[in-house]
Amino acid sequence: MNTKQKNILTAVILITIAVTIYVFAVIRAVSQ
Amino acid sequence: MIIRAELFEPGMQFVNPQFFNSMTTMHALVMVFGAVMPAFVGLANWMIPMMIGAPDMALPRMNNMSFWLLVAGVLLLASTLFMEGGAPASGWTLYPPLVLQTGKALPFAIFSVHLLGISSIMGAINIIATIFNMRAPGMTLMKMPMFVWTWLITAFLLIAIMPVFAGAVTMLLTDKFFNTSFFDAAGGGDPVLYQHIFWFFGHPEVYVMILPTFGVASTIIPVFARKPLFGYSSMVYATASIAFLSFIVWAHHMFTVGMPIAGELYFMYATMLIAIPTGVKVFNWTATMWKGSMTFETPMLFSIAFVVLFTMGGFTGLMMSVAPVDFQYHDTYFIVAHFHYTLVPASVFILMAAGYFWLPKWTGHMYDERIGRLHFWLSVVSVNILFFPQHFLGLAGMPRRIPDYAVQFADWNMISSIGGFIFGASQLLFLYIVIDTIKGGTGEKVTDEVWEDAAKHSLEWTLPSPPPYHSFTTPPTVIPTEHI
After folding, report:
1. What angle do CA B110, B115, B117 make, to 5 degrees?
2. Tens-digit pLDDT profile for residues B154-179
3. Could you give the percent of chain B with pLDDT greater than 70?
4. By three-state DSSP, how is residue B104 classified?
5. CB B155 within 8 A of CB B124
6. Rounded Cα distance, B234 and B295, in Å
7. B112, B241, B271, B278: which is the annotated catalytic residue?
8. Binning pLDDT at 50, 70 and 90, where does residue B73 land?
9. Can B79 be counted among the known catalytic residues?
10. Tens-digit pLDDT profile for residues B242-256
11. What long-range pairs does B432-440 form, CB within 8 A, spacing at least 24?
12. A23 to chain B nearest CA, in Å?
């Protein structure tokens, strides 16, 4: 895997984490 | 300036109360999201590739989008000032139900927060990708300069917290326009829930502004003390500890909402724990200077002022962490004094220190040291005239976010305003110095290293001044280790 592919993979993983946190925060508030 | 002019003396002078509250709200949002954070992201974008021996940042298109979303977000936020009903006037916390009374500006303000959040997340992703994937051979994690370390940790903080804030303001939006009741007691919701969500974001957010500050101070102080940074690895672990603790102390901002006593105690003790890694850092900076061959150029002067004045802000924070005592301080000018000490003579001073430190590297010209020192002394004296009296006002009971006050608070408010005007005017000197240095400064061409033996501390000083467009097109062969 070259550096460019590693960079894109890192970005995809981090974006997934950010979106998951966003969805989790709203779902937790809905369930309160 | 409008805020301090209005508070110069009791009574209403220049603006109406609604506009005054809009000013405090916009001041905070613009300083947090439009000034301090972008300034540190800018430093990260410029310095991290040079410090780790990379040619440039990892994801240029994402970086570009991050920057232009920031511009769009700040302009959208500023535009709310001209909308029917005025800009939001609920403070930067945007607490419901007050914020839901905002006029036409509310959806625009919320959208601007979303844009600024997306911009921050994209910037953070880029920083993490650059540090993880583009370090020069031999630049192991525990050889990275502290500025790079602090930004790596800050970037993870940003990715963890910005979506939470985005979630909170989205719920405000649906409460206002789509008949939900997340924060509306009449519909079964709870406004205190918003406070919990906001501060789960808000407390780490203040560390987003202070951790890179620590990183720059840890970079500058060893160069002018001519010694390695004392306790490099303890600095790294202290930074990580502060970041971890920032997630488990949020409710110390809301001791007065009526929490169970066990909650108050937990958040009180957890908050006090932060003093330990922060104390480690202050000790390390002091020990770095101890018996060093110190010189006092402008970047070092600002850094020393940071260590002293940030410690004062830290101590008042420790005072407020004591829950029963916080009932007295809550929502008073004591809080305003506390966080301004941790943000202005800390983050803002260190941003200016960074400017003086790297300006010769960026431009190839030396700034005028005489005017730099004048700028420092005017700033350090006036910032204390501005914020120190606010401790007295807060302890005497003056509430924050009010345009008018009882006559007993008049004297210290007048002194504070005078300090504010001098501090504001002094910053014009910095603007002058930056422009003057770009145009040629003292006329003295600086060396690659600029400061004595700086290249032993970090890689950027091995590049020409100014550095080439792409910094390290071939990886460096020698990794500096003086900083560890």
Report:
1. 95
2. 999 999 999 999 999 999 999 999 99
3. 100
4. coil
5. yes
6. 25
7. B278
8. very high
9. no
10. 999 999 999 999 999
11. B432/B371, B433/B356, B433/B359, B433/B367, B433/B368, B433/B371, B433/B372, B433/B375, B434/B355, B434/B359, B436/B367, B436/B368, B437/B359, B437/B360, B437/B363, B437/B365, B437/B366, B437/B367, B437/B368, B438/B363, B438/B365, B439/B365, B440/B365
12. 8
Residue B285 has pLDDT above 90, yes or no: yes
Q: Give me the pLDDT at residue B370, please.
A: 95
Cα gap A6→B152, rounded to integer Å? 17
Q: How far apart are CA B208 and CA B222, in angstroms?
A: 23
The C-alpha atoms of residue B66 and residue A14 are separated, in whole angstroms, by 15
Q: How far is residue A15 CA from its own chain's centroid?
A: 4
Q: What is the reported pLDDT for B31? A: 93
SS3 state at B365: strand
Cβ B466 vs Cβ B443: under 8 Å:
no
Q: What is the ipTM of this complex?
A: 0.87
CA distances from B455 to B66, B101, B150, B249, B294 (A): 31, 56, 20, 40, 17
Say what the pLDDT of residue A30 is. 80
Distance from C-alpha of B365 to C-alpha of B353, rounded to nearest angstrom: 16
Number of inter-chain CB pairs under 8 A, A vs B: 62
- The H or E element spanning position B426 is helix B410-438
B190 as an active site residue: the answer is no
Q: Among B129, B134, B197, select the one facing A11 at the smallest CB separation.
A: B129
How many C-beta atoms surround the C-beta of residue B346 within 10 A? 27
Helix or strand or coil: residue B135?
Answer: coil
pLDDT bracket for residue A13 (50, 70, 90): very high
Instruction: Supply the pLDDT for residue B441.
Output: 82
What does the mean pLDDT of chain B come to?
Answer: 94
Residue B108 structure tokens: 């625009």
Rounded to whole angstroms, how far apart are CA atoms B154 and B29?
Answer: 19
B26 touches chain A (CB under 8 A): no
- Alpha carbons B462 and B466: distance in angstroms, whole number: 11
Whole-prediction pTM value?
A: 0.94
Chain B residues 442-461 with a CB less than 8 Å from chain A: none
Instruction: Measure in Å the smallest separation between the Cα of B175 and chain A Cα atoms.
Output: 12
d(CA B37, CA B71): 13
